[in-house]
Specification:
The structure is a homotetramer. Chain A contains 13 helices and 9 strands. Chain A is of the alpha/beta class and about 300 residues long. In chain A, the strands form 2 sheets. Chain A has a 6-stranded parallel sheet with strand order 6-2-1-7-8-9, sandwiched between helices. A 3-stranded antiparallel sheet of chain A has the order 3-5-4. The longest helix of chain A is centred in the first third of the chain and has 18 residues, at about 30-45. Chains in contact: A-B, A-C, A-D, B-C, B-D, C-D.
Chain lengths: ~300, ~300, ~300, ~300
């Protein structure tokens, strides 16, 4: 039977070395985190692996926008499945707006009066969301009407990406680097309200089945599929269910604070997905219980270093 | 300053009396639960209130199907926003299949071999999901093609409800009672896979913006709007964001095991939604931290009793 | 394979009937809750079962004081293992003080200035805690010095119970009914500070090993041992570890919001305790994930009704 | 109003640089983690700060034994308040036993049959715990009887530390380096069972009030007090309540998966402790929601680097 090793910390040790110490510990959260760093490092290095990241929760407004953009830019991620909110907030920053440091104990009645909307401990101005409407309309108008009459979110976001100038935008970077962003719930967001009002006066039909076709196609394009799941929700489920046709993903890591006992899919262990054919085998799977905003940057640094250094 | 009262339990006390004792306690989870029972009872009694329930997590396969159906049947709920999974599992039971009691520690590789797919501690047979395909196709074929070329999930589910015979089906009961079911992520489910394969050979375009138009319309149809939120995810967000045009919902209760600190909307307190205009005021709002499969039946019994007994 | 049954709610149904519907559902949280109601009902009816309750978290100040007192008074519980805080707050109420309904978002600097101390959303006055000192000293002075020189918490609380007059006090009621309260961390509380200052000027030695001797003795006094675990912490561990000598407890239910994945004992499943000899078999064990302040009153009403009605 | 900055990751960036990027993000979990790294770095550098760490959960058997020992050895920690379990498992390893990598889904009946006891996903042999008895008795016999008749856990652990030879033992290292270990629930552990059986035949009285006296004295010995709280339970409460006499601690960070809403102290925010006088001001306080086994090693590396590099 393998034995627990104790993590040795050293001054100025690299993030990768620390992750390897955790991998050697093998148990508890640290052991899982170390395993996740190994799997992710192997995924990053694997040229024959189609890499997806699912992104729920306010990671884009909340500090991880550059991390995501840099992974796209470096070719470490080929597809992203995310929420309408994350796309909305990327566009807001692309238009020059910024997110404001706030407090999770703020008085929301007062915030509303001041024109601020809250996401946990960060704020966004209502005026920036109003300004997004005009820009959204302008970007939509530039899309050929024939395309607009039956469009998937990934096509819409390519069209948007094409029109954006901000190099830090993950929507733009995906377009530039040929990566694909799926936003199956794009209509369920502040951006979605603008899409909806537009659709009331202009020809515009969002068709999520077009996204699914593209997503399924991508699962066949390389020998292996690897998935990084940050948070749960529909992004997690879409990326996994699209892989059932090819017999499931080959590797997956998930970071979440959700738990299995409520029965919901967000907190379900990756192993459960094996019984649905969404995941191939129990090898190369790991769930790390924790907050992705803290753990994913650490994991990404360790995995990048590993993908470069190791033979 | 108000004082904490201690809950008195009595032999054979009614569920309502127990909830009222908790309301009098005023603090901790019990105080919140008691407040939720009061708000829900008032909502149930209010003829001028449009009542929505958002439903995430496997409540339909997991034992709450009749609770939901009975609330629809009694006219206590006018609209439901739920996941594709809950619709899928309602249809499976409507076709005569049953869900199987399993274990959350099962070996998923073995389950797959046996043709079983797992949701936490319950199973469903893969063969039942395969059989659903044929029935789905048949039901889709009966929908006029012009309608099928641009259809919202709520219209699709009316068409399905019309064709079902099972009185315990919430999809059928909604149709019969004139209630509306929205399933903004219907494509993201086992049923969704069947819809997608159908769309590859038949004219079929799912348009979530049609759902949103109907949902927004419903928020204007009565003087007040009340929302019951079970679990988070897109169902929670859709129902709340649709109410921004009318200035927010008037009352809302939520039961969830998700927490605010990850920043995601699923665990966000209802107060946060005030800053977005999704909720009107801090009055008549309450979050109960807990498992909806346990707490909602208790709450529903208390609220029904209250809605009938009180003047 | 057993099948999931759907919970049927009926107007004015009893708490027991509702719990039995949940038991029949068999899965998810509801199934576990229903099972817990059955196990607790059997425990309450069993004359040959030594019944312990472990109590962590602010249940005594937060509304469950009468529930606990009534269970002691009815002979449904023979031993309680709890925190110093719960004893402190029982004594405060016994002295005529009340707990105040507050807010979990209060400004704590301001509260302190106003002489209020906070437990989540309830407050207690600092002056009441100061007044407790004099009373504690008086009660201690009445204990024979020979006893005071080496005393366990259960003996100390008997001495206190003897001197209290409040019929709603669980400390008094335990004394009156011959039940035993163990408080292995009694020194780690506001009452504990008074005990400590007393010990600096008077002979007074608290010996937790005396508690353990009595606790172990109690595990042998009846044919079976049943344990109700509300919250985790030392109360949970003490009551279970004391049962290792007799080969483990026969039945146990636990209600907690803690989870297993952090590795701590508070969130550990009861099954884990089998490997330590603290629990006998996997039969008659159940963990309900949830807030004890809501779930325990419901469970207690169901179990009491069951213990009386069923043959 | 300050703005959210986005975390920039770079290849081979140091742990400290990554933590500083998170600090600059300011929001969500990452912002809190970054703030914790700053506070801890300042604490480590501050010669006039008495530093305590409270340690609940199986961190010692689960991979963090060397981290704790190294912090003691480097003089970064002056006092530890921990559970009986962590002391037990330190002694087991000091005697040459190792912890075994297991599975959280193991069959506990089977494990027991094989002589293994489980802590989440790690095992320990029952035979090692039995062997601990003899060693414990021998170590106790070497303590002068007069001392043994009224001894605090910190004194007992000094006596044990004096007799141990394992340089990786935190109990030994504390003794060697003049640090103090408090174990207010030492009796509530496998080691505690051996202490109890010893006390049945030898003069031995554990007095937790002696610990409290020493703990309070330590809070006065330096100009400032800083506390690192890993997990909750009695260790968290003891270290904070002991600081009430001096007006509260000056700085504190806590890492925990427990939440506030159940009302228990383990999940309570540090701000709540201000209202009790256990914490001085809201400055230099931060709660990071997460698993200490993952986050603390990262935090410690960042803080050590910071304490050395920064002026």
């Amino acid at each position: 039977m393998p034995l627990v090793s104790h993590i040795k910390i050293r001054n100025r040790m690299s993030v990768l070395n620390l992750a390897q110490e955790m991998e050697a510990a093998k148990v508890l959260g640290a052991g899982r985190f170390g395993k996740a760093a190994r799997i992710l490092g192997e995924m990053f290095r694997d040229k024959n692996c189609m890499k997806f990241i699912s992104l729920a929760g306010p990671l884009i407004p909340g500090g991880l926008r550059s991390v995501v953009t840099d992974l796209l830019d470096g070719g470490y991620v080929n597809g992203i499945v995310t929420t309408g909110a994350n796309v909305t907030h990327d566009l807001l920053e692309a238009l020059g707006h910024r997110h404001i440091v706030g407090s999770e104990n703020a008085d929301d009645v007062n915030l509303k009066r001041r024109g601020l909307s809250r996401i946990y401990d960060l704020y966004v101005t209502q005026s920036s969301i109003e300004q997004l409407e005009k820009v959204t309309y302008r970007m939509l108008n530039r899309i050929p009407e024939s395309k607009r009459r039956n469009i998937g979110s990934h096509e819409l976001l390519w069209e948007f990406g094409k029109q954006l100038r901000d190099k830090n935008s993950f929507v733009r970077t995906a377009y530039v680097r040929g990566a694909t962003i799926f936003c199956p719930g794009i209509f369920d967001s502040m951006l979605g309200l603008h899409l909806w009002t537009y659709s009331r006066v202009h020809p515009f039909v969002l068709n999520p089945l077009r996204d699914f076709s593209r997503l399924v196609d991508m699962t066949y394009e390389k020998r292996r599929v690897g998935v990084i799941i940050l948070g749960g929700g529909m992004p997690k489920h879409q990326v996994l269910i699209a892989n059932t046709y090819r017999g499931g993903v080959d590797a997956a890591i998930q970071i979440t604070l959700d738990r299995a006992d409520g029965g919901g899919f967000s907190g379900a262990p990756l192993e459960e997905a094996i019984s649905w054919g969404k995941v191939k085998t129990p090898k190369n799977l790991v769930t790390v219980v924790g907050d992705a905003s803290v753990l994913f940057p650490v994991l990404a640094v360790a995995a990048l270093e590993r993908s470069k250094s190791k033979r």
